[in-house]
Amino acid sequence: MGPGLMGQLVEMDAEDRDAHQDCIRCHAPLAEQADALAAAIADSGRRPPGHASARALHEEGLVCAACHVRAHQRFGPPRRDGSAPDAAARPALPHNGFTASPAFEDSRFCAACHQFEPDGFTLAGKLLENTYEEWKGSRHAREGRTCQSCHMPERRHLWRGIHDRQATRAALTIEAQPPRIAEGKVAARLRIRNTGAGHHFPTYVTPRAVAEIWQEDAAGSALASTRAELVLQRQVPLDLSREISDTRIPADGEALLDYARARHPRAAVLRLRLRIEPDAFYADLYRSLLEEDGAGRGRAMIRAALGRAEASAFVAWEARKPLPAP
Prior knowledge:
Number of helices: 11
Number of strands: 15
Distance between the termini: 55 Å
Largest sheet: 4 strands, antiparallel
Low-confidence stretches: 48-52
Order of helices and strands: HHHHEEEHEEHHHHEEEEEEEEEHHE
């Protein structure tokens, strides 16, 4: 529940709770959070610029209670040995103990927010959010590897994904063939295989992964007109009106970037890289809102969100391959 979402919500009607729910049913799902958001939107028009207030409940986003509390009762997975607190022991435990449920170890638990219903929003005949179904059709599902096994290893509440370099690298097997020189051209191949993610890489429309190859001189400077790239992304316009392209890698699939460029006279090294932009779509959206003055009261938050989105990019893998002497 960061500034990018809040910067858009603050422009909504405070009483239009159905519109709020389109966003917060996953980002801040508690009824108390819906009340706090409505109050904050109503109050935002009266606060002077720069006014600071205590962090409200809706700004906490996905809190513990969203997953672990139902009807004022605490729930969680069975202990590692399969046991759960008995009724006699509960009064002595924090929160009066908990009720064990196997749902916490089932991928369907994650589908509530990471899978649109069959009649949900689609582009090119594909649901906009389809992560659970991607997993369901993968080898990982058949082998019993749940969402939690990767994103919550050893029950740790990490939820690492495309924003995390280590998690991203664990999802991929990347191979680079040694460059060859033939008829004055540099030839190479970069193979990216989705061996570790139990869904498409990347799974949603917001991230972009870019495979790149270019030539460098002995000092490490990129040489003009030698760059080739392959974008891995489900590309859609900001208004979500259509699907432009879908070059994502399915589970156990692969993508190839074949390189063939004339050798630059000063070329000494071939550089290969996989760059990740986890918030590419958001960054484009925030730029558009700021450029078109569509941010309104949320302008400061949108500007902060753009900075975060741009700063989230990282290099997941890179290699430098010396070129044979001319």
